[in-house]
Specification:
alpha/beta, about 30% helix, binds NADP nicotinamide-adenine-dinucleotide phosphate
């Protein structure tokens, strides 16, 4: 039995940081040995610094750990980052860890669109990990950065991937309905969201439109060539605790029957399923046939929050097909995605368990 990799969580007290702790509590390949957060929390025990906001108790093993600053070195072999992407903090901290020789598996937006940084969904674009050779050549050292997509982008890109591979996707229009936990804690004021829908989430539409093209793009030599499709996104904050939903319309490169579309989605499996990675769902996409699914409350926890549920697959009068996708924003959309990335890096030998 290999030794577990010792990991640090940057932003450990936040919504995503807590999800990392919950998902890693009994993980067979990782053990948490360092926790970092802001100077509000540094020097305190995790129990003192963090109000636990997930269902169930704060795992006992983290309670007495001391919260550190998100600066290298930390007592660990790799870091998972859930630092705020805006304001330069994640960029500075993650860059410093990578330069200091730490693998950085990041969930923040800071490095996602850098030309030499993989924006990874293991089921979709594992070949983009070749960019790590470019990072090594440019920066030297053992450290590197791998990112996972924005929480709405990941479900859209996962749902589009089998359609794009089989039929070619020409254009996509996505309208999201995003959960409150996507804004971190305390997030949106209750008086702003009660009896209301907010049609603006800063930076989100741009992230979906840009990241999707990189994820579905092709590795050409040492670069990713963006996927040749048009993506249009409109994002809304809705009064749901967890689970992002997107109403999606797609235009395909060629005429395809609806059963072919459904089969492409429901039968989709890839490398993580083949390698039986610990967090990989059996089916990354679950197709629902009921007319009123997916629903946030009923479907966000599908396959422990790691599958995207897709329903309402229908021919569309304007583009070719439409459907509704839903996934758990802090699991498949954040901590679960980063952990699956790290599991893949172990399975293909980029990360080593001694
Ligand atoms: P959050 O609940 O606001 O947590 C932010 C974390 O960062 C906390 O641990 C906080 O520590 C720490 N932090 C804030 N300012 C800091 C500073 N100046 N120095 C050091 N640490 C600092 O946010 P979140 O929702 O977990 O999101 C974290 C990251 O994940 C963001 O980049 C976000 O875009 C991304 N993300 C979130 C979701 C989601 O669904 N929530 C999904 C995908 C990606 P203190 O407690 O000490 O303040």
């Amino acid at each position: 039995m290999s030794k577990k990799l010792r990991v640090g969580i940057l932003g450990a007290t936040g919504m995503v940081g807590q999800r990392f702790i919950q998902l890693l509590e009994n993980h067979p390949q990782f053990e948490i040995t360092a926790l970092a957060a802001s100077d509000r929390s540094q020097g305190k025990s995790f129990q003192e610094a963090c109000t636990w906001r997930l269902a169930g108790e704060m795992p006992a093993f983290v309670k007495s750990m001391t919260v550190a600053a998100p600066e290298p070195p930390l007592d660990c072999e790799l870091v998972f980052s859930s630092l705020p992407g805006e304001g330069g903090l994640a960029r500075e901290s993650e860059g410093a860890f990578a330069r200091a020789g730490f693998p950085v598996i990041s969930n923040s937006s800071a490095y996602r669109m850098e030309a030499d940084v993989p924006l990874l969904i293991p089921e979709v674009n594992h070949e983009h990990l070749a960019l790590l050779d470019v990072q090594r050549k440019t920066h030297g050292g053992k450290g590197f950065i791998v990112t996972n997509p924005n929480c709405s982008t990941i479900m859209l890109a996962l749902a589009l991937a089998p359609l794009h591979a089989k039929f070619g996707v020409q254009s996509v229009v996505a309208t999201t309905m995003q959960a409150l936990s996507g804004a971190g804690y305390p997030g949106v004021p209750s008086l702003a969201i009660s009896d209301n829908v907010l049609p603006f989430i800063d930076g989100e539409e741009e992230k979906i439109e840009q990241e999707t093209l990189k994820i579905l793009g092709k590795l050409q030599g040492a670069e990713i060539e963006a996927a040749p499709m048009a993506v249009s996104a409109q994002c809304h904050r809705v009064n749901v605790s967890d689970g992002h939903m997107a109403a999606v319309r797609v235009k395909l490169d060629r005429a395809v029957g609806i059963e072919d579309v459904k089969n492409a989605l429901s039968s989709f499996t890839a490398l993580p399923q083949e390698l039986q990675l610990h967090s990989a769902p059996k089916y990354p996409i679950i197709v629902r046939e009921e007319p009123d699914r997916p629903q946030s409350r009923l479907d966000r926890d599908a396959a422990n929050g790691m599958s995207v549920s897709v329903g309402r697959i229908l021919p569309d009068n304007v583009l070719d097909y439409r459907f509704v996708a839903l996934s758990h924003n802090t699991i498949r959309g954040a901590a679960g995605a980063a952990i699956l990335n790290a599991e893949l890096l172990i399975a293909i030998g980029i990360l080593k368990q001694e």
